[in-house]
Design brief:
By secondary structure, the protein is α/β, with parallel strands linked by helices. It contains eleven helices and twelve strands. A hairpin with a 5-residue loop joins strand 11 and strand 12.
Length: about 300
């Protein structure tokens, strides 16, 4: 369901109906407050999995009283996936500020999913048919990024990404590009030489096809993108600006490193257009399709 006051329930219902309630050989289900979904369009009763907590949909006006239903919807979906009753989970956008006021205690979906699944390292990937990017640090203020980068984090994250490229995307010999932190890596600051370069060398020693640290300003043009299968970036905007520029409506957020498949649309709650009939379900549809493709790949 995501944030009840945002476009999440709208695009979930729109995607459900656009796909005819199925993706491949699997049925789709909507998890959340039943009345919230019904306020967004016609949905068959059998497609709804209700939360015990209630939410109140007032488009564009989030309220922390709805946090319990938002959180429960995530928990119920994860439990279904972990138990094998669901092949994948596709989450609608949440509002982190509202959840924080309600005492949520996690910066976002990725961290909460890692907690629920006890995954040692959950990794956010944004993917489209043009680009795959991974931010090493996610919901961290820019001033704290240098302290959050370590050789261990880079190596562990890279290995999760490389493993997922093989398992989930059927790339037999994946290539990973690693961005530097600073402009012109090695010329400003010491993180690129002191932390990132040694991590890249360690990954090479382990037999991986990895290059870096590379200058981020020349990493995302068309010719450069042909030289790698995914790019590991050092912070949120370094990764998300390129993919949202190239694939705003078709980008998908995938959480790697979990014992389940999870995707989501690559956009936020869009309170400014919630309830106005303007929400575009393309990214949600793309997220559902990619979730099904990964679930199929893992089942083979």
């Amino acid at each position: 369901m995501g944030e009840p006051a945002g476009i999440g329930p709208e695009i979930a219902v729109a995607a459900f109906n656009a796909l005819g309630g199925r993706i491949g050989h699997r049925d789709l289900r909507l998890v959340g407050d039943v009345d919230v979904f019904r306020a967004c369009g016609a949905v068959p009763d059998e497609a709804l999995i209700a939360t015990a907590a209630y939410a109140h949909r007032t488009p564009g006006k989030p309220n922390e009283r709805d946090a319990a239903a938002t959180i429960e919807a995530i928990e119920k979906s994860v439990l279904a996936a972990l138990s094998g009753r669901a092949a994948a989970v596709v989450t609608a956008p949440i509002n982190k500020a509202v959840l924080a006021k309600a005492g949520f205690g996690f910066p976002g979906h990725t961290e909460f999913l890692a907690h629920l699944t006890k995954a040692p390292r959950a990794v956010m990937m944004l993917a489209s048919d043009q680009l795959r990017v991974v931010p090493l640090t996610i919901h961290v203020p820019i001033r704290d990024v240098p302290r959050a980068i370590s050789e261990t984090a880079i190596v562990e994250t890279a290995e999760v990404v490389l493993g997922a490229l093989k398992r989930d995307f059927a790339i037999a010999a994946p290539r990973l590009a690693v961005a530097g932190l600073n402009p012109h890596p090695g010329e400003f600051g010491d993180e690129d030489d002191r932390v990132i370069a040694p991590a890249v060398e360690e990954l090479k020693k382990r037999g991986h096809n990895v290059r870096g640290p590379l200058s981020a300003d020349t990493l995302f043009h068309e010719e450069a993108r042909k030289t790698y299968d995914a790019a590991l970036c050092m912070y949120h905007d370094q990764a998300l600006i390129p993919i949202k520029t190239l694939s705003f409506w078709d980008g998908v957020n995938i959480t790697l490193g979990l014992p389940m498949v999870r995707t989501s649309p690559d956009h936020g709650t869009a309170f400014d257009i919630a309830g106005a009939g303007k929400a575009n379900p393309r990214s949600m549809i793309a997220a559902i399709k990619m979730a099904a493709e990964i679930a199929d790949a893992r089942a083979r």
